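Listing S7. Sequence submitted for prediction.
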Amino acid sequence: MEEVTADDIRLALVPLSQKSKGLYDTVNMLIKCVFYSAERSQLITDNPCVGISAKGGKASKKKDALTDQQVAILLDTVKELPPYLFIMIGLYSGLRREEILALQWDCVFLDESTPYISVRRAWRAEHNRPVISTVLKTKAAKRDIPIPKCLVDCLREAKANSISEYVIADSEGQPLSYSQFTRVWQYVVVRSAKERTYYKYVNGQSIKYTVKPTLGTTQRNNPKIRYTLNFDVTPHLLRHTYITNLLYAGVDPKTVQYLAGHENSKTTMDIYARVKYNKPEELFEVVNDALNQENFDEKSPISMVKE
């Protein structure tokens, strides 16, 4: 460790500069923690991390929530397909992927006067195998979420046909592995009209091919697959859509923070700010009310300026 220089660390961080900002920040912090700990333990005399910038990586593009029309198209696309139940839970309860895949029927209360889901477990994959634990992402992740009738009906039907204690399970009733979930989500991916690039070996050479599916057409080798999605969909976007819809409906940010399981209110408020202040008609009313002369208090700073 004594031989590591600041230039060595900067060089190690160069490849990460092309990755996401989150990944860059995580690795950067990990390296700094290692060397600061070594310095405190007097294993090194000079800390090479001093002066290393915390800034780097590509800022992730903020995705907009799905519109009502896109939600309708998505649900119509996956109806009767394996990811349907997962998508319904994501859209109408806002659970994280790891919370949905760990959800068991003992935490789904459909016969209460107000049906709800309790988040008490989380899923993770170790060497592709599912591991279910009661250790959640944060303390705030432990919550009870009331659910609408459309999700209640969907879950009731799924429960009647279920052979597992898990809401989302494989054919043997076990929680999904990482690769199993990836295959389930492929039902969504393959129906996207997004441009695709792949490589094929011809006479020992790797040839690059680009496919541009046409919306509404079927896949050449599988007529059952129709390209119906002209927008991106990810598991996290389902949750983002749920949170955004709550804010559009006028639910106060503190309640949304609880329902989303956000430990930090900043996460909720960032979404709230985008939802609230990206609508010109909303801004017009806010500004108009704020600057309406009739609403001025005689001692307010604005009224004093106007005088």
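Caption to Listing S7: primary sequence and predicted structure tokens for the chain studied. Residues 62-192+229-294 form a domain with the hpI Integrase; Chain A fold (CATH 1.10.443.10). The chain has a mean pLDDT of 87.
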